[in-house]
Amino acid sequence: MTLASVLIVAAALIGIGLYGALSQQSFVMLMMGLELMLNGGLLAVIGLWANTMGGAPEGQLLAIIIMAVMAVDMAIGFALVTAVYRKRQADVTESLTTMKH
Amino acid sequence: MGLTDLLFFALSAVAIVSGWRVFATDSMVRASFLLLLSFVAVGLIIVMLAAPYIGVATIFMMTVEMMVMALFMVMFMMNPAGLNPMMMVHQHRFSIVAGVLAFAGLTVAILFTSFPGIPVDPAAPVVHDLGIELLGPSMLIFETAGVTLLATMIGSVILSSRSGRFGLADQGSRPPGLEPDGEPAGRQPEQGGGGHHHHHH
Amino acid sequence: MELIAALLLLLFLSVGFAGAALADGMLPALISGQARPSWRRPIAEAARLLQTQPIRTEAPDALLWFLAPALYLALAIIGLAVIPFGPGLVTIPSEVGIVVWGSCEALTIVAVFMFGWSANAPLPLIGAYRYVAIALPAMLISMFVLIGAALPAESLGFTEIVEAQRTVWNVVRQPAGLILFLMLGLAISLRGPFDYADPADLAGGTTADVSGPALLAWKIARLAMLVSVSAVTATAFLGGYLGPILPGFVWFLLKTALVLVVLVAAGNLFARVPPARMMGVIWTMLLPLSFLMLLAVGLELLLWG
Q1: Residue B167 in this model has a pLDDT that exceeds 60
Q2: How big is the CA angle at C77 (ends C75 and C78), to the nearest 5 degrees?
């Protein structure tokens, strides 16, 4: 379990998450992609903390902040999905074309 | 290769494969359970990386999040049981290329960087240190996260509550149309209501 | 030491499970005034279920349906594994025991939802939905109450929490906390007033379309979780293995048995209220109460700790 292997796993999760966030039409599936990217980020942060920082607690603090970001992402994401669904009866990104103009 | 390495590779395989299957399964509820499995595997890897609190807290938090996500899936999505094939994607080729490029770029960066090798001392009281850090030197940062979460709660209540800025909740709570912009599916309420009197001649 | 603890865990789980099955079968009869209820009833019920014909629903998610009881049982065992059975007798010594237990609670909700959803039938899905709505806030309450139990120990590990109760048990510090935690116990072992997953008013809810050995597996997992949550309650609030004269393990067993009997009795004596009303009670009364308990413990430790 070297640092490089941990980081490569994290990179794979970020890559899959990016694919999901860019390709999915449904809002909730799109949010899953974002969560997967944050998951990879979390793993990379802890991997770096455990192997390069000698246990300085600030690394764990950053991980806690990432978890808070995940929670904010989910809560606001679902609130927006609810609002959009009420307004447009829609759950896919294509239905929000008016936001382009 | 020791037992730790074997365990690490197994958990990594679970994390990556289930992360990929999230976007390849037909049921969105199954997708959220797969994402949860990926998070649990990452959480266990984090525990192995000498950060027990962060790892277990990740599992705890993500379980609750994915549970809520599964609920929303059943509420909003068609085909929650995965009885029909589902592939709802746009700009698919571009996304695959972007994902692969991100992975390849990051991997190259990882392999060509020399990281300082100062591993954490296995005997260090990491959980205790984290607690002291959170409520000591980094208290302001921690509190900022708390205030952000409070703002999130208020924001999501405003966005989704009954009398939000997008109108009354029950006003828009119609089922989606059978075709785009079509009549809502299901039984239609009768026009005029029960209190309306018709005139007969 | 950990090996001994693991063996003790198996012993404890078997004894506790047998006790739970007996209590579950006999207490309702005792409460209703029968003088000599039969202890063979649970065994007869198990034998009957083993011979019952298994049924299927249309297009279920067979894998998740099969795995949900196993996950439920595994969570009960993991919960027991972080609890000390005696001084130094713990299967998986963890300095974040409370968080591990919290994850077990949260994953239990997932297991129940999985079980209800994967049947692909209306009543199980309604049961699963109702259960998640009630159990998620109930789990939040239990976590606040457990933080109140961890404050005096200045640690998240169960061993430290027990040692910190040498002066005074946590039940004295937060009596309402014990009651709130017992409610969580009812919720995650799916019984009585908090059984919103498979109650009779939904014709069995999550178990409406399960029969035979699969139903038996689910019931076994439920009882195992009952043992587990009783053990956690005894550890976090009643001083765990602490006690005079008798060895620690015996005290732990006695306290767990006491909590288990209280839980089974409560499940039979209290009625279930409609889910919407229970939601209101949980969010507007019980959750603030758990904050108050946490505040009280914090102030006590700050002023006199």
Answers
A1: no
A2: 65
Nearest-CA distance A96 → chain B (Å): 13
What is the Cα–Cα distance from C16 to C231, expressed in whole angstroms?
Answer: 9
Q: Burial, B122: exposed, middle or buried (Cβ in 10 Å; 0-12, 13-18, 19+)?
A: exposed
Nearest by Cα to B19 from B5, B8, B32, B6: B32
Burial of A53 (0-12, 13-18, 19+ CB in 10 A): middle
Residues paired with B89 in a beta bridge: A24
Backbone Cα Rg of chain A:
17
Q: How is residue B28 written in tokens? A: 């969105």
- Domains of chain A by residue range: 3-100
What number is the ipTM of this complex?
Answer: 0.89
Name B187's Cβ contacts closer than 8 Å, sequence gap at least 6: none
Chain B residues whose CB is inside 8 A of the A22 CB are 91, 94-95, 98-99
Looking at the structure, give the CATH architecture of the domain made up of residues A3-100.
Answer: Orthogonal Bundle (1.10)
Rounded to whole angstroms, the Cα distance separating C27 from C264 reads 7
Interface A-B: count of C-beta contacts within 8 A: 255
Residue-wise DSSP of C230-244:
HHHHHHHHS-TT--S
Tokens read off for B13: 């395989």
**Other residues' Cβ atoms within 10 Å of the Cβ of residue C265:** 16
Bridge partners (DSSP) listed for residue B164: B167
Where are the alpha helices (H) located in C189-212, listed in sequence order? Answer: none
Q: If contacts are CB pairs under 8 Å, which of residues 65-94 in chain A contact chain B?
A: 65, 67-68, 70-72, 74-76, 78-83, 85-87, 89-94
Query: What would the two tokens of residue B37 be?
Result: 């499995």
Structure confidence by residue, pLDDT tens digits, C24-74: 888 888 888 877 777 788 888 888 888 888 888 888 888 888 999 999 999
Q: Vertex A56, ends A52 and A57: CA angle to 5°?
A: 130
Q: Are the CB atoms for B159 and A79 separated by under 8 Å?
A: yes
More confident residue, B193 or C243: C243
> For residues A24 and B83, what is the distance between their CA atoms, to the nearest angstrom?
19
Chains B and C touch (3+ CB pairs under 8 A): yes
Which residue type does A60 have? Answer: Q
- Supply C10's token pair: 């198996």
Chains A and C touch (3+ CB pairs under 8 A): no
Coil, helix or strand at residue C86: strand
What pLDDT digit, counting tens, does each position of C76-134 carry? 999 999 999 888 888 888 889 999 999 999 999 999 999 998 888 889 988 998 999 99
Measured CA to CA, the distance from residue A98 to residue B26 in angstroms comes to 29
Please tell me the distance from the alpha carbon of residue C139 to that of residue C161, in angstroms, as a whole number: 20
Q: What is the DSSP string of A16-83?
A: HHHHHHHHB-BHHHHHHHHHHHHHHHHHHHHHHHHHHSTT-THHHHHHHHHHHHHHHHHHHHHHHHHH
Segments making up each domain of chain C, as ranges: 2-304
